[in-house]
Amino acid sequence: MKKHNFSAGPSILPQEVLQKASEAILNFNDENLSLIEISHRSPAFVAVMEKASNLVLELLNLENKGYSALFLQGGASLEFLMTPYNLMKEGGKAAYLDTGAWSSKAIKEAKLFGDVEIVASSKDKNYNYIPKGFEIPVDADYFHCTSNNTIYGTQMKSFPKSDSLLVCDMSSDIFSRSLDFSQFDLIYAGAQKNMGPAGATLVVVKDDVLGKTGRKIPSMLDYQIHISKDSMFNTPPVFAVYVSMLTLQWLKNLGGVAGIEKINNAKAALLYDEIDSNPLFKGVAEKEDRSNMNATFVLTDETLKDKFDALCKAAGLSGINGHRSVGGYRASMYNALPLESVQALVNVMKELNK
Amino acid sequence: MKKHNFSAGPSILPQEVLQKASEAILNFNDENLSLIEISHRSPAFVAVMEKASNLVLELLNLENKGYSALFLQGGASLEFLMTPYNLMKEGGKAAYLDTGAWSSKAIKEAKLFGDVEIVASSKDKNYNYIPKGFEIPVDADYFHCTSNNTIYGTQMKSFPKSDSLLVCDMSSDIFSRSLDFSQFDLIYAGAQKNMGPAGATLVVVKDDVLGKTGRKIPSMLDYQIHISKDSMFNTPPVFAVYVSMLTLQWLKNLGGVAGIEKINNAKAALLYDEIDSNPLFKGVAEKEDRSNMNATFVLTDETLKDKFDALCKAAGLSGINGHRSVGGYRASMYNALPLESVQALVNVMKELNK
Ligand SMILES: Cc1ncc(COP(=O)(O)O)c(C=O)c1O
Ligand SMILES: Cc1ncc(COP(=O)(O)O)c(C=O)c1O
Ligand SMILES: [Mg+2]
Ligand SMILES: [Mg+2]
Ligand SMILES: [Mg+2]
Ligand SMILES: [Mg+2]
């Protein structure tokens, strides 16, 4: 029996995507060759890359708005330094919102490049909320935030307006909800939550914000070079791009971001309602900042842990342990997780309270 | 019918590896989850990474000699800049041997970091030979060379001794022949020739050469950080690492590097003998520098091109067009290419000469 996969990332992908990916490893495109043993310059793979990039812009409603979509390597972690390399002026300054471990890592890398101002932080409460009402310094080259905090289960519901460029790490909630994506100048995300397998990094960048820092940027870290080569400056992560393309196509067929948003809202409502109504459970994040992707919760009575864990295991629930820095439980409900899996978890929670 | 795959990279992988990879996409390790939807911190994947790294050191005969094997992202192209970041002292100097387009790209990135001396170049003859008799300046922090020049079909048969660190881009011939790998301080290679699919980069580095430059290195570009986290500083390219592990295991079962070297020598001898003896073909690279991985050759009579191409197609030969900067033909004979495929090509060459 296939498990209910609540893994925080790498994480669940649509079954039809896995099926197609598995087939392509043996015979891609009916060419009698494997997807992973053909040239990335072959027409068949160039078409995959093109389709993947186009789907990204289409799903984010950013077509013909001056944006490029890139598939790179290195994970979101490499973007932590590519962001300042490409956007922080020599002797410049950047503003960061600190909403957790990932923001902090982004901040650490940016500090190697220049002045970094942390406009607000929720570290005082182990990042269980999103700071509000902060100000972005007028001389900041850009403002960086993390839309969804995978570890703590918080999610930004709105984004500040300012004169700075707006940069967002959307690793764990991209393609999960409708937003005006044109408010962002740079979006990046590791593929391994809502988009595909680990090994590809999505970058969506507004072309005209680039090339203005005065820095000499190594080729592999320069967005303009990757744009000019359609993500093929060097050998791309072929398999991860292909599976991302399949997943984006699956999402489009499902009604795109607006379509999945409804399902994601239903899943989150189902689980948070149970967390709130069941006296044995308590949510970790502040209600108004709760993430629709990662729900964090704890038992109100720790002595029930073994019993709950056993029930979860018996029900085939996988990957719901909380991150070590938070404890308790974390149910990640990415796009590909069906409502039935959330229902299975809720059933176990109800069972525990019988 | 499966084709004879002479692709220069990404390139042929063993059929049994493709079979296992395809299965793991649906059900990995009999865990009823896909390889690409489980946490990279799960015991099952941690074991894969460990096994892959150990196999690398074992196959290169570098166990217990102070080396670490890393699986990173970004391709060999990212190593072009990670090399100077990690090994060139602030205000330091590096020496490079220019044997082709890949060397030149490595040189370009290194120049962003300090003084680069090109000790010799074969550009004068479109890189159809390996320069010899050059001197490495005594004050160079390291000497960088490219062991196999994928585009031109040349291969270094020996490596210079000097007081500098020895760095080698082995992207297109790693694991193909016996060498004293302990003469190198840093070896790197994109996976997509002899090791696995695109999307993983192998780095083998002598631990005690690191941490001596005085540079502040961004975390993702710092070998010491990746070593301290066993290649899991961030989410690794799970699929590419897994398939690399399978391919390395396949190689070990075949007798390791010494075992495959015999087969590679036989394949190369078969093809080069035909190139030399057949009046319709001529080799591109100087004989003494010929690559056992990529054989470059041209027709002596260009009017036969259409006929030869048609024969190749009919025989199911794929990927033998030469690189645009060289022209003619290039037959890449990586580890997984069977002798029968080379025989099929040779048969077609003989057929043309009938
Ligand atoms: C919000 C966020 N940012 C960044 C990262 C780091 O991504 P990667 O491992 O791809 O570097 C993660 C990983 O989980 C994440 O959740
Ligand atoms: C010798 C050599 N070095 C470097 C590269 C670049 O590798 P990547 O595309 O993984 O960056 C290649 C690619 O073919 C190569 O053959
Ligand atoms: Mg703006
Ligand atoms: Mg409750
Ligand atoms: Mg030495
Ligand atoms: Mg001849």
Automatic annotation (TrEMBL), chains A, B:
Pyridoxal 5'-phosphate binds at residues 76-77, 102, 150, 169, 192, 234-235. The gene is serC. Pathway: Amino-acid biosynthesis; L-serine biosynthesis; L-serine from 3-phospho-D-glycerate: step 2/3; Cofactor biosynthesis; pyridoxine 5'-phosphate biosynthesis; pyridoxine 5'-phosphate from D-erythrose 4-phosphate: step 3/5. Catalyzes the reversible conversion of 3-phosphohydroxypyruvate to phosphoserine and of 3-hydroxy-2-oxo-4-phosphonooxybutanoate to phosphohydroxythreonine. Binds 1 pyridoxal phosphate per subunit. PANTHER family: PHOSPHOSERINE AMINOTRANSFERASE. The modification N6-(pyridoxal phosphate)lysine is found at residue 193. L-glutamate binds at residue 41. HAMAP family: SerC_aminotrans_5. This is Phosphoserine aminotransferase. Keywords: Amino-acid biosynthesis, Aminotransferase, Cytoplasm, Pyridoxal phosphate, Pyridoxine biosynthesis, Serine biosynthesis, Transferase. PROSITE patterns: AA_TRANSFER_CLASS_5. The lineage of its organism: Bacteria, Pseudomonadati, Bacteroidota, Flavobacteriia, Flavobacteriales. It catalyses: 4-(phosphooxy)-L-threonine + 2-oxoglutarate = (R)-3-hydroxy-2-oxo-4-phosphooxybutanoate + L-glutamate; O-phospho-L-serine + 2-oxoglutarate = 3-phosphooxypyruvate + L-glutamate. It comes from the Bacteria. It comes from Aureibaculum algae.
